[in-house]
Amino acid sequence: MNTTLEQIASPKVESLIADYHTCIDQNEQAKIISILAELGDDLAIDLLVDVVGVEVANHCQGNVRRVAARGLEKMVISTTDSEKRQKAIDKLSWALLNAEDWALRYAAAVSLGAIATVEINTILYQAMTQESDRVVKERIQMILK
């Protein structure tokens, strides 16, 4: 029997996604998100997009969101699914332009900068005009140079 990597990885990805949903430890959730991003399976993109958009109950949950934002970079670069790619870029753009958490905006900027398209440069320039946090603004400037 010839087993492909996709046949091996997909059930593990599905299991990790289920584990994320049942896990209450936010450090563990962040680890699961990180592993899913490393695996790069399109099945996990929707979860990472959802995690970036959740309301923050506390600082630890904010960390899970930041890990997801950084993970989306890897997933966008590796996916061939244009719809999922655009959904992830849209969520990162939303996070950069609308999130209250400066660290999430920073993570979104770094991820968008690595993806680097004309559309993203437009979003980064827009973020420059409205960003109030000095650290995030400096990072965006570095990306745009």
Molecular structure report:
This protein has 145 residues and is mainly alpha-helical. Residues 1-8 have low confidence and may be disordered. The protein is built from 8 helices and no strands. Helices cover 79% and strands 0% of the residues. The longest helix has 20 residues, at 59-78. The protein has one domain (8-144): Leucine-rich Repeat Variant. It has helices at residues 5-22, 26-39, 45-52, 59-78, 82-98, 102-115, 118-130, 134-144. It is globular and about 45 Å long. The protein starts with a helix and ends with a helix.
Structural class per helix/strand content? Answer: mainly alpha
What does the average pLDDT come to? 88
Tell me, what is the CATH class?
Mainly Alpha
H/I helix tally: 8
CATH topology: Leucine-rich Repeat Variant
What would you report as the Rg, rounded to the nearest angstrom?
15 Å
Largest sheet: none
Strand content: under 5%
What oligomerization state is this entry in?
single chain
Q: How much helicity do the residues have?
A: over 70%
Give the H and E element order.
HHHHHHHH
